[in-house]
Amino acid sequence: MLRAAAAAAAVFPARFTAAPAVAAADELRSPLLRVLGTLRGGRGSVLLGRRARFCSNSSASDSEAAAEAEAKAEDAAVAEGEADGKASSAIVPTNPKIEDYLSVVALPLPHRPLFPGFYMPVYVKDQKLLQALIENRKRQASYAGAFLVKDEEGTDPNIVTGSDSEKSIDDLKGKDLLKRLHEVGTLAQITSIQGDQVVLLGHRRLRITDMVEEDPLTVKVDHLKENPYNKDDDVIKATSFEVISTLREVLRASSLWKDHVQTYTQHIGDFNYPRLADFGAAISGANKLLCQEVLEELDVYKRLKLTLELVKKEMEISKLQQSIAKAIEEKISGDQRRYLLNEQLKAIKKELGLETDDKTALSAKFRERIESKKDKCPPHVLQVIEEELTKLQLLEASSSEFNVTRNYLDWLTVLPWGNYSDENFDVHHAQKILDEDHYGLSDVKERILEFIAVGKLRGTSQGKIICLSGPPGVGKTSIGRSIARALNRQFYRFSVGGLADVAEIKGHRRTYVGAMPGKMVQCLKSVGTANPLVLIDEIDKLGRGHSGDPASALLELLDPEQNVNFLDHYLDVPIDLSKVLFVCTANVIEMIPNPLLDRMEIIAIAGYITDEKMHIARDYLEKNTREACGIKPEQVEVTDAALLALIENYCREAGVRNLQKQIEKIYRKIALQLVRQGVSNEPDKEDLSVTANVEPSSGDGAIAKDEILKDSAVEDASVTNNGINPPSEEANEVNLAKEAVHEVHTTETPKEDSISEGKDTDGAKEDAVDKAIEKVVVDSSNLGDFVGKPVFQAERIYEQTPIGVVMGLAWTAMGGSTLYIETTKVEEGEGKGALVLTGQLGDVMKESAQIAQTVGRAILLEKEPDNQFFANSKLHLHVPAGATPKDGPSAGCTMITSMLSLAMGKPVKKDLAMTGEVTLTGRILPIGGVKEKTIAARRSGIKTLIFPAANKRDFDELASNVKEGLEVHFVDTYSEIYDLAFQSDAGTETS
C-alpha cells in the first residue's frame, strides 16, 4: 500500500475573480458541501487513494517550502485572475512558470495514471533516471512527466502480473520505452526523494510530441487544457450532481472514502466540474486503462460522464461488500440464535415434564434392554450394570467419562447373556446338508456327525475346537458354514491372518480413546446368541508385533478349561464361551505354535483327486456358475472330456478354487457370445407381472424357465468340436459375432442352418417356439479357445527314466507333486570322489544327500566290491525346478537310488516312484503327506510306489478309489528298495 504525506499539501487556487465564475463555483460548491461538509476535520488525515495517494514521507523543509509556495500561488492566482478576467483550474506556477517546462524527463508509471492534485510515490530503479530527477530538483526545475505504461501485446490488463512487468519496464530504454508509454500524462512536481522513492504531485495534463534524449528518456511535451464548456449547461450540471449523489451513497458505506473527500478538500480547495471528474476517477478502483481514458479526455462533459460510470461501478462494489458482510453476520448470529433457542426449549420441556433429560432416557433404555435377560444374566454382570447405571446419573453429560460409561453400558446390555439357539441334533438332517454342500471329505463329515451324536445323547452340546488343515481351495471355510447350518447355529467368521495386536482378541482397556472390545465380544453382539459357530480363519498366519503375542492370547479363548470364564479387557467381566463351537482353518499346521495346537483337534483335508474334482465340477461348480451367468442348461454343454482336460492341464492344485475360476471364465465367454448373437434370457415384462407372486427368484442368476421365448440367433448357433476352426482367445469374441454358419447339435435330429447377420429378430422370435433347443458345446478340442493354452505339462519328463534319474514324491502346501532327482558324473580320477548339489536345496536335503552318498557307497561295496565309483568320481546331484526352494526329510532313499543307478549303470524300474528318509545304517524312516503323494503319483501315471513300512497304516486309511490300480511296497531297510528298483526287465514286465 502506498502511504500519504500529511505535510505536503496540494496547491490549487480556489478563488475566481470574475463574478459569473464565482457564482458558478458557489452553485457547484453548495450542493457538494451540503453533502460532504460534515466530513471536514483536522488536518491530520490525508488522502489515501487505491494506488494514487497522498504521501507522508516528505521532509519538514519540503512542507515549509510547499506552504510558502501555496501562499505565493494564491496571490499570483488572484493577480492573474484580475488581469485575465477568467478562472483558472491549473496550479499557479512558481518561478519559473509551469508553462515554461516544454521538455521533461519521462517517468513511467506501471500501475495507474497520476491525476492533477494527487500525490503518488514511485520507486525508480534506473539510477540514471533517479540521478536526473535529483539534479532537476537541485536546479529548482523539480518537475517531470508521469506517463502510464502500456500493457504488452497479448496480455490482459485486468490480470495482475506482479514484479515481472516492472522488471521488463526497467530494462527498456529510449525509443523502446517511448513506444510503451501513453502519449497523455501528467506534469508532476517532485516533492521529495528518499532513496529510490520519488513522491510526485500532479499538476496538469501533458502530451508527448517528440523525444529529446534517450537515457534518461527526455521528451518534448504540449500542455493540455480542458475544452471550453458552458458552466450553465443543464446536462453538465445534472451529470455533476449525479456524480455527487453517487459519491454520497458510497460515502455512507465506506469510511475510507470519507477520508479521501476530507483530505482532498483541505488540500485542493473547492470542486469545479473538471476537478470533480478527476477526483471521482482517481479514488475509484477502476481499471488503469479506464482511468487513463478519463485523463486523456479534454471534453469536460465526456470526462464527467466517464467518471460517473466509474463511481457507479464503485457503488455496486460497495453494495456487494455489504451483502457479503451481511451474509456472514447472519450465518454466525443464526447459529448462535439456534443454539440458544434449543437450550431454552430443553429447559421448558424439562420444567413441564414433557421430556426427560438425556441421562434419564439412556438409563431407561439400558434397563429395558437388560430386563428381558435378567433371569439368564449372571449375577456379577447385573451388579456391574447397576453400578454403572448409578455412576451414569452422577456424571455430567459433557464430561468424557460420561461417554465412556455410556459405551460400556451399551456393550454390557446388548450381549446375549444366556441366550442360546435351539440346536438340531438330527444326524440324518446333518448328513443331508453336508452332502449337499460338499462332495467327499468323509472323515470331516464323520467327525461332525460324531459331535452331533454326543450332543444328542447328552442333551446339550459342549463347545469343541476343530482345526481343518489343508491346501487352499479345498473347502475349509465353506465346511464351517455348512456345519453351522447343519447344527442350526449362528455363523460368524473372522480371520486372524497377519494379526499382531492382542487387543483384537482380548479388547482394549476402557481408558484408551476409541477403545473397543475384542473379536469374540463383537461376535456375540453380532450373532445375538451365546452358542454360535465361530470360524477362525488362517490361524497358521498369526503375526507377532510389539503389542504382544496373539497366539498366546488365543489360548484362553480356545482352551475348553479356560474359556468358561473368558475375560475381555474392555468388558472386564467373565464371559462363558464354553458353548461356542470353534472351527479353525490352517494351510500348514507346523506354523501353529505347539501350545495352541495342543488345544485343537486336527482334521486334515488332503485335497481332491481327479475323480472327486470331476464330481465337484459337474454337481456344484458348473451348476452355480451357469445360474450366476444367466445361462440356461439347454443353451450350453460342457463335456466330460473338457472337464477332464481342464482338471489335468489347467487345475492340478489340491483345491478347486482355480477350477471354479476357469469354469467361470468359460461361461463368461459363452455369455458374451450369446449376447453378441442377439440372445436375451431376460423374462418379458408381461410374464414377470403374472409370475411375480407365484414363483420367487431362486438367486442372483435365477431365470424363468419355459415361459421365455428364445431368440433364433441362439437356437441357430453353437460351437462344435470340428465344425468351425475355433478362434484364439483374443479373437474369439470378435470372430464369434461374425460367423454366419454353424454346425448344429440338437436334442432331436441334427440339422444345419445358415444365419445372415441382418436377419429380422422379430420374425425369428415368432418361429423360436417350433425350433429345437441348440447348445454351445465345449469339448476338449476347443477348450483352449475359452481358457487359453494349458498351464501344466506332463510332470513326467521321461517315459523311461535314464540311468542316474529316479522319481521322488514330495508334499507342498498346494498338495502333492512328483519330482526327479538326477545324478551325473562330472569327472573321474584317482581319489577325486566328491559331491556337488544344486536345485535350491534346504539344509535337511543337503544333509540327506551326504547321507545318501555314504549309504550308497556302503551298499555298492557290498553288491560290487570291485567298483570304485564313489571313491574316484566327482558327482553332481540336481533336483530340477531350481527356482523352487525344496527341503524336507523324505528324499534320502531317492537320492541313494539315483547314485547307485549311475554307479552301476542300470536304470531303475519303469513307472516307479519312492519316498522316505534313510539313516546311516540303511533304515527307512516314516514320512508325511501319504495321501497327497499318492494322488500326485496317480496323476503322473505311476504304477509302483515305495513307502516306509511305518506309513502302511496311513495308506490303508485312504479311500479305495485313491489306492485302486497301484502296486505299493512298504520297506524297512534300503536293501529292500534296492531289490525293487533294480529288478530285471523281465520282472518289470511281468509285474
From TrEMBL:
SMART domains listed in its UniProt record: AAA (SM00382), LON (SM00464)
Region called Disordered, residue ranges: 66-90, 682-701, 743-764
GO cellular component: mitochondrial matrix
GO molecular function: ATP binding; ATP hydrolysis activity; ATP-dependent peptidase activity; sequence-specific DNA binding; serine-type endopeptidase activity
EC number: 3.4.21.53
SUPFAM superfamilies according to UniProt: P-loop containing nucleoside triphosphate hydrolases (SSF52540), PUA domain-like (SSF88697), Ribosomal protein S5 domain 2-like (SSF54211)
Reaction(s) catalysed by this chain's protein: Hydrolysis of proteins in presence of ATP
Active site as annotated: S890, K933
Major subcellular site: mitochondrion
Domain Lon proteolytic: from-to ranges: 800-984
Highest taxon of the lineage: Eukaryota
Localization in the cell: Mitochondrion matrix
Stretches assigned to the Lon N-terminal domain: 104-315
InterPro entries tied to this protein: AAA+_ATPase, ATPase_AAA_core, Lon_bac/euk-typ, Lon_lid, Lon_proteolytic, Lon_Prtase, Lon_prtase_N, Lon_prtase_N_sf
Positions annotated to bind ATP: G470, P471, P472, G473, V474, G475, K476, T477
Similarity remark: Belongs to the peptidase S16 family.
Function: ATP-dependent serine protease that mediates the selective degradation of misfolded, unassembled or oxidatively damaged polypeptides as well as certain short-lived regulatory proteins in the mitochondrial matrix. May also have a chaperone function in the assembly of inner membrane protein complexes. Participates in the regulation of mitochondrial gene expression and in the maintenance of the integrity of the mitochondrial genome. Binds to mitochondrial DNA in a site-specific manner.
Database matches in PANTHER family: LON PROTEASE, LON PROTEASE HOMOLOG, MITOCHONDRIAL
Oligomer status and interactors: Homohexamer or homoheptamer. Organized in a ring with a central cavity.
Protein name listed in UniProt: Lon protease homolog, mitochondrial
Organism per entry: Urochloa decumbens
